[in-house]
Amino acid sequence: MSPENSIVMEEGKGSKLTLDGGFIRQELFYLLKDEKDVHFAFGNTQGNGINKASQGMHSSKFCLNIAGDTPSSNRLFDAIASHCVPVIISDEIELPYEDVLDYSQFCIFVRTSDALKDKFLIKLIRSIKKDEWTRMWRRLKEVENFFEFQYPSKEGDAVQMIWQAITRKVPAIRMKLHKSRRFSRSSVGRERVLNSMQLPKNFW
C-alpha cells in the first residue's frame, strides 16, 4: 500500500474491548497489524493517548470507524474534524442528517462480514485512486461545519442542523398522531355500547 493510502485505526477512549464492536476491533487488529501504513492509535485518557490518536488521524488518509457499543460513534466525528476519510465498518450505524446528507460522498462503507475477510479491507482501500480520495476529502471539508457545535450558534453548524432535523420530523409525528385519532369516537362509542349490554358472567 502506498503512503498516500495510510490508515489509522483508533481504539476506544478506554482501552477495554466490549461486545461485538470489541470483537470486530480485535479481529481487525490481527488482520491488519502487519500491514504497511496501518497505524493503531489508542485514544485512552491516560498519558498523552488522546493527543497521539488525534495526531494519527490528522496525518492519515483513511480512518477506520468500527462498530462499537452504541449505534453511532464519536470516532466518526473525530475523523471528520481531522479531514480523514472515514471507513465505516458497521451494518447498523445511525448517522445524523442522513435524510439530507449523502454520506457515501465522503465516507466508505464496509459490511462487517466483508471487513473480516482476509485482505478485503486492504484491497478495497488500495483500489481507491488519488482523484477519488481527493473528491471525498473536499466534500468532507464542505460538511465538517455540520458536526461542529459553536457558541453562539451559527448558520449551518451542528445546533442548526439538529433543529432542522427535528423540524423535518414534526410533520411525520403530527401525521401519526392524527391517524391515531381516526377511530377515537368509534372506540368510545363501542365501549359505551358494551358497557350498557347485559353480558353473562365470565363472558370475556
Q: How would you summarize what this structure contains?
A:
Helix content is 46%, strand content 11%.
Would you mind describing this structure in some detail?
The chain has 204 residues and is of the alpha/beta class. It has a five-stranded parallel sheet, with helices on both faces. It is globular and about 70 Å long.
Give the full name of the CATH homologous superfamily of the largest domain.
Glycogen Phosphorylase B
**Helical element count?**
8
Which parts are unreliable, with pLDDT below 50 for 5 consecutive residues or more?
Answer: 11-20
Strand order of the largest sheet: 2-1-3-4-5
CATH topology of the largest domain: Rossmann fold
Radius of gyration: 24 Å
Q: SSE order in H/E notation?
A: EHEHEHEEHHHHH
Shape: globular
CATH architecture label of the largest domain: 3-Layer(aba) Sandwich
Q: In the CATH hierarchy, what is the class of the largest domain?
A: Alpha Beta
Which whole number gives the mean pLDDT?
77
The share of residues in helices is 40-55%
State the end-to-end CA separation: 72 Å
Largest sheet at a glance?
5 strands, parallel
**Strand segment tally:** 5
Would you tell me the structural class of the helices and strands?
alpha/beta
How much of the sequence lies in strands comes to 5-15%
Number of domains: 2
Main location: Golgi
Keywords: Glycosyltransferase, Golgi apparatus, Signal-anchor, Transferase, Transmembrane
Family: Belongs to the glycosyltransferase 47 family.
Domain Exostosin GT47: 21-122
